[in-house]
Amino acid sequence: MEQIFDAIVQAITLQALGMVALGVFAGITVGAIPGLTSVMAIAVLVPFSFFMTPINGIPFLLGIHKGALFGGSIPAILINTPGTAAAAATTLDGYPLAQKGEAKSAIQMALYSSTLGDTFSDIVLILAAFPLAAVALLFGPTEFFALMVLGLTIISAVTGSSVLKGLLSMLIGILIGLVGQDIISGSERFTFGIANIADSVGIVPMLIGLFAISEVLIQSEKKIVELANPPESSHLKGGRSLKWIELFQAKWAILRSSCIGTAIGAIPGTGAAIATFISYALAKRSSKRPEEYGKGSYEGVAAAEASNSAVAGADLIPTLTFGIPGSASAAILMGAFMAQGLRPGPELFEEQASTMYGIFALLLVGNPIMLLQGKLLTGLFARLVTIRKSVLVPIILLLCVVGGFIYQNNIEDVKLALFFGICGYGLRKLKFPLAPLVIAFILTETAEESMKQALLLSDGDYFVFLTKMAGGFPVSGFLILLSVFLLGMAIWKKPWAEAE
Amino acid sequence: MYKSKVFIYLSTLVLAVLFTLVGSADAKYPNKPIKVILATGAGGSHDMHCRAVASVIHEHLGQPFLCTVRGGGGGKIGMTALKRSKPDGYTIALGSGSHFAIAPHARNMGFDPKTDFIPFFQVNYAPFLLVVRSEKPWKNLQDLLDDAKKRPGKISISSNGAWGSSHLGILQMMRAKNVKFKHVPFRGGGKAWQAMWGGHVDAGWANVTTGGTLSRVKRGQLRLLATASEERMKEFGKKYPTFRELGVDYIYKSWRVFMAPKGTPNDRIEVLKTALHKASKSKTLKKLIKRFGESLAPLSGPALRKAYDSEIDFYGNLFKKMGYKKKK
Q: Looking at the complex, does the CB of residue A324 fall below 8 Å from at least one CB of chain B?
């Protein structure tokens, strides 16, 4: 116990704190620019970490990871474009809030929820990494498929007023998700020989197109006179500060979402996007005011942001305990750990315990640092909504084009983004909700693979999804039954909601 | 308003012209950073190796390496980008065996590895290992094969994708020993390993770094059945047999080799080669690679070219013997 205390005290030097702060700042900036991903930033800065001590280098990179998951919410709220795929759910309520002139309080809610969610998962990482990793390992193809099915049922929570259009949107999302290479057979499907989508459709260009470029097109319809005037809400100077009562009311949503984010983040192969949507949907179901969701609910923003930041800490669990990264950022982080001589596996916590505890301490300290930086930057960001649309919209378009290119250094992605922009415009004009499309797209790849793998393993027995035991518990069966239950509840409640 | 618009347009034009002139003057090579394409995608051992080399190369070359991730399409996107880039020595790639030696036989990748690229420096390689969890009943490869004969199609082995490097290993075992395994493909080696470690499939593949396999074998958590190398691996004290020893003609060495597009001038390649050889003697680089659990194996020149070509031919023959029809 004393050893841990010593290690922590030794680690918290001014220099190390400075590196964390720098990392968090870089992360927020990178997250806030659509097209720039934290993967990219971490990858570029990793070689620098090779020459720093582990205590300085690793927390620096971890700070970027943290900051980016909050930073992604900023464009999601301000211009309806998720800065990272993980922030996709934040657009659902964040953007309506910004349009009502409450951008500042929305970003603050995102900041507080992100910090709380991240702190929660960091604590879980420190205290329960191994037990949690053991549970995560129970997830094989059968269980993954069941989890994806659960994910698909939550789509019903975000369909908006027309269930039919929501379902159609979901089907389109599934169709797009099927585009690309099938790893079971190796053949390319629906790619029309286009090299860029031979693997799968890129999520970042798709999000940039569907959300931001479509918004640009929609705004362009308005008369130039209307756009050249300052927006009606500009007198609010970006909005007011978040009231404590609003944060307090969202406490259950934040807690629940942090748990879900941590749990899903600990399972390698599921991403932040899945965690956020599931948390959002469950928050809506359990909320006292579900009708606000989609129109500007602070709870909705809180649920989405707490969840995606919780994934940040939880990501490290499978990465450090058995060396299989849960995401692309985690993969690079793992490389950085290894370059410092910190090899993932049981030995990490035995032989190099003091270094690890020092790193964990700095990981936790990163949260209040992010809170501080966020508070200072929020006012600045929120003011962006006071810019006249006639200036803002072209800038957004430029950001989209640059962002689409920077993502993979590939001009084809810009074309892809433009294509989705036009599709998104069409869908929105026809009043189709975009969220079901995005969720279905994200889930389809894993769902399809897992289903096929599970059936290969069970020799074609479909009942395996209900009967397979994992760790003495029918995990897959439980998730499937939960999905059926939730779906049933949604269908039963729907006629009620339609009456509004 | 009018005046300032003209001014802005004119100055932009002048600046643009100036920018294009900068850097084209042919001073001594290299006079600007070298772009290194990573067709494998972000993270992963390839990425790490590239960045490790990039962190020391500046001292030996005078210019840095910029590792640029261009993943996707099983290497198609990155490698075709290399093929189409200007062969002036400022764009190279860190190639992977599965991209240049295996994938082109499996489907139309849009390039011919023998004619479109010039491999000039091998950093190292990491042979594939067939591993099982230590609770499993098979003590060695023969046990596994015997069991497979008794229960055809029941023992599951994961791979990193259909017609990829580890799938070929499974196919070779089945052909050479006349047994049937249940092949379960995953998206990438990491996921495939995870399925094995979690007990969802019976056996899986790894290299020494995947999931900390080296230390897990040493600690007895994983059992190594065979290695896909030419000789017994010294990392394991030469205790474990190779596939070839056991009668299965399967090698996969997961190469990491720097490649240039065809047409790159020879003298520039020599400059890069010399710098890389010097870098591979650097203590810093050796230490970094060692921390990944691997070691450097620098190779260049005719020996490298020969190994490269024979690798491509080896897999070409493998696919032919299996009667595989190339898609598209």
A: yes
Instruction: Please write the tens of the pLDDT for every residue from A236-253.
Output: 666 777 788 888 888 889
A387-430 pLDDT, tens digit per residue, is 777 888 888 888 888 888 877 777 888 999 999 999 999 999 99
Task: Give me the residue from B42, B68, B293 closest to A328, CB to CB.
Answer: B42
Q: Please report whether residue B6 resides in a domain.
A: no
Q: How many CB pairs below 8 A link A and B?
A: 164
Q: How confident is the model at residue A63 (pLDDT cuts 50, 70, 90)?
A: very high
Listed residue (A62, A110, A1, A36) closest to A360, CA to CA: A62
Q: Is A181 on the interface with B (CB under 8 A)?
A: yes
Q: Over 80: is that where the pLDDT of B326 sits?
A: no
Q: Give chain B's domain count.
A: 2
Are both B150 and B193 inside the same structural domain? yes
Interface residue A340 vs chain B (CB under 8 A): yes
pLDDT digits (tens, 9 = 90+) for B147-181: 999 999 999 999 988 888 899 999 999 999 999 99
What is the residue extent of each domain of chain A?
Answer: 2-498
Chain B window 64-123: which residues touch A at a Cβ cutoff of 8 Å?
Answer: 67-74, 76-77, 80, 106-107, 110
Q: What is the pLDDT of residue A499?
A: 44
Residue B180's CATH number: 3.40.190.10
What is the pLDDT confidence band of residue B308, given thresholds at 50, 70 and 90? very high
Residue A189 belongs to what H/E stretch?
strand A188-189
Q: Is residue B290 a part of any domain in this protein?
A: yes
Final residue in a domain of this structure, among B167, B202, B236: B236
Q: Looking at the structure, do residues B120 and B266 belong to the same domain, yes or no?
A: yes
A331-373 tens-digit pLDDT: 888 888 888 888 887 677 777 788 888 888 888 889 999 999 9
Q: Which of A409, A452, A459 to mutate to test the interface with B (most CBs of B within 10 A)?
A: A409
Which range marks the domain in which residue B226 is found? 129-236
Q: Any idea what the CATH number is for the domain that residue B67 is in?
A: 3.40.190.150
Give pLDDT, residue B71. Answer: 77
| Interface contact B201-A457, CB threshold 8 A | yes
pLDDT at A500 over 50: no
- Identity of the residue numbered A109: M
Predicted confidence band of residue B2 (pLDDT cuts 50, 70, 90)? very low
Contacts of B41 in chain A (CB under 8 A): 328
pTM comes to 0.83
Q: Is B225 in the same domain as B307?
A: no
B231, B291: one domain: no
Do residues B67 and B137 both lie within one domain?
no
Is A269 within 8 Å of chain B by CB? yes
Name the closest residue on chain A to residue B216, using Cα atoms.
A345
Last residue of a domain, one of B184, B206, B236: B236
> Quick check: A343 and B43 CB within 8 A?
no
| CB of A39 less than 8 A from some CB of B | yes
The residue that leads in pLDDT, B71 or B105, is B105
Same domain, B121 and B135: no
Q: Do A335 and B47 touch (CB under 8 A)?
A: yes
